[in-house]
Amino acid sequence: KSIFPLQNCYQTRLRSSPNRNAGIDNAIAPSTEKNPKNNQIFFDIAIPTNSEKIPIGRLTFRLTPHDPQNPAYLPLHTENILNIASGKRRSIDPKATYVGCSFAFSPAFIQDGSFRYRWSHECDGFGRNAIRAADPVTGELTRWEEAFSDPERLKDCTHKCFGGVYYGRRYGDVVEELTRIAREKDREENVEVPVVLLTVPIHGPKSGTSKFSIVRVGESPREWGERLLLNSAVIGHLDCSADGRIVEEGIDDTDDSERVNPMDVLRAMAQQRMGLPTIINC
Q1: What angle do CA 139, 169, 131 make, to 5 degrees?
Q2: Burial class (CB in 10 A: 0-12, 13-18, 19+), 92
Q3: Three-class SS state of 166
Q4: How far apart are CA 211 and CA 225, in angstroms?
Q5: Helix, strand, or coil here: 240?
Q6: What distance in Å separates the CA atoms of residue 207 and residue 189, rounded to the nearest whole number?
């Protein structure tokens, strides 16, 4: 019997990345086109053991919709992670992807010294960006491996929190939106909504690079809460209504009784001891 309970829910085998990761678009700047389908990314997660990689599930994220009039929308940071996850430059640069990257855990986001529970899952990527942005000082385009910044947009979406700041979407706005959607779906007033945010670093090491974090703000201890977001920007949230299964192509996935809760995938990532969770497809 598998030591990973979620594994028994899947009808899957590890396979190579689909053709959607083999694009040849040489992106140099964020797209100006509005496409509602382009605000979603996913990561298929596995745990490596001595003999194999054991799939545990899929995490699907909704990115802040493309809207230049929305001050919380950060076009450079959002487009960068979207392009890396979709493999827009992977045929040109094999490192312009998240496939094969692992999640680490910051000691600051671990509940106690026994490493029993983690609230933030950090992925550095391979250090390759999928956009080139104009340097705010020189005006020259950044190199693919060079960090970028977007100071003008950050001015309009700065949120104070416990002596520090974070950027992008305000945590309270995400909670309000997800709660409203849950109430309309379940037709109940009192609903508890798990809030997991997708963030990128704005200050400190590896800001403006391929690095991102998955932060379980809603489940974290109350004294942490928004503190987990300091010096980063919120660019999306986990879609908890999405199916957390990894289903092999050609397999019937219409049986809702087999659906997996994405929160269970995250909890399995937090509690495992075999190895670092690794992205096997996106």
Answers
A1: 35
A2: middle
A3: strand
A4: 21
A5: coil
A6: 40
- Report the distance separating Cα 233 and Cα 213, nearest Å: 10
Please tell me the distance from the alpha carbon of residue 216 to that of residue 262, in angstroms, as a whole number: 12
Provide φ and ψ at 255, rounded to 5°.
-80, 105
Q: What is the dihedral sign for C-alpha 241, 216, 90, 99?
A: negative
CA distance 164 to 230: 6
For residue 123, give the 3-state DSSP assignment.
strand
The end-to-end CA distance of the chain, in Å, is 28
The percentage of residues in the chain with a pLDDT greater than 70, rounded to a whole number, is: 76
Are 44 and 279 spatial neighbours (Cβ–Cβ below 8 Å)?
A: yes
Q: How far apart, in whole angstroms, are the C-alpha atoms of residue 6 and residue 88? A: 31
Residue 27 has a CB neighbour count (10 Å cut-off) of 20
How many whole angstroms separate alpha carbon 39 and alpha carbon 82?
A: 8
Please list, in sequence order, all residues whose beta carbon lies within 8 angstroms of the beta carbon of residue 154, skipping any fewer than 6 positions away: 74, 167, 202, 233
Confirm if 196 and 214 have CB atoms less than 8 A apart: yes
Q: What is the C-alpha to C-alpha distance for residues 75 and 190, in angstroms, rounded to an integer?
A: 35
Phi, psi values for residue 27, rounded to 5°: -65, 135
Residues 189 and 104: their CA atoms lie apart, in Å, by: 37
pLDDT in tens, 73-119: 999 999 999 999 999 999 999 999 999 999 986 555 555 555 456 78
Q: How many helices, marked H, and strands, marked E, lie in the chain?
A: 4, 10
- Phi, psi for residue 199 in degrees, rounded to 5: -130, 160
Q: What are the tokens at 3?
A: 């030591």
Q: State pTM to two decimals.
A: 0.83
Distance (Å, rounded) from C-alpha 86 to C-alpha 136?
27
